[in-house]
Amino acid sequence: xxxxxxxxxxxxxxxxxxxxxxxxxxxxxxxxxxxxxxxxxxxxxxxxxxxxxxxxxxxxxxxxxxxxxxxxxxxxxxxxxxxxxxxxxxxxxxxxxxxxxxxxxxxxxxxxxxxxxxxxxxxxxxxxxxxxxxxxxxxxxxxxxxxxx
Length: 149
Fold this sequence. Notes:
Layout (H helix, E strand, L loop, with lengths): L15 H42 L1 H17 L1 H13 L1 H30 L16 H12 L1
Helix pairs in contact: 1-2, 1-4, 2-3, 3-4
């Protein structure tokens, strides 16, 4: 009885609904493919700027990525070649990743410094004053009274 009212269970109908669903799915996937190609093409043109930005923000991050690929060659040559080929074809994605990682590291470093400043306290500039002994007559009177009394 419950199956008769279920809109997703259409056993009596024609296969047109299934065909329409498959066509809609294929059209959606084609749209996503064209969208991904468009975004990748834009990233390909701005990737040199992303690489320069990554070098400015976090030079060590880019150097560490290159060292990692070289270490892959030393450990396994085939894996190093695959990583190099993927880095070349995925150059826009790699540069975007390096820039994002550099910005993230910079932000984390700032937050770490702020936390450390809160914990340790901030140094304050000061000016040293002339160190003359202070004369406090009232305290001297009390001392004399305590000695005499």
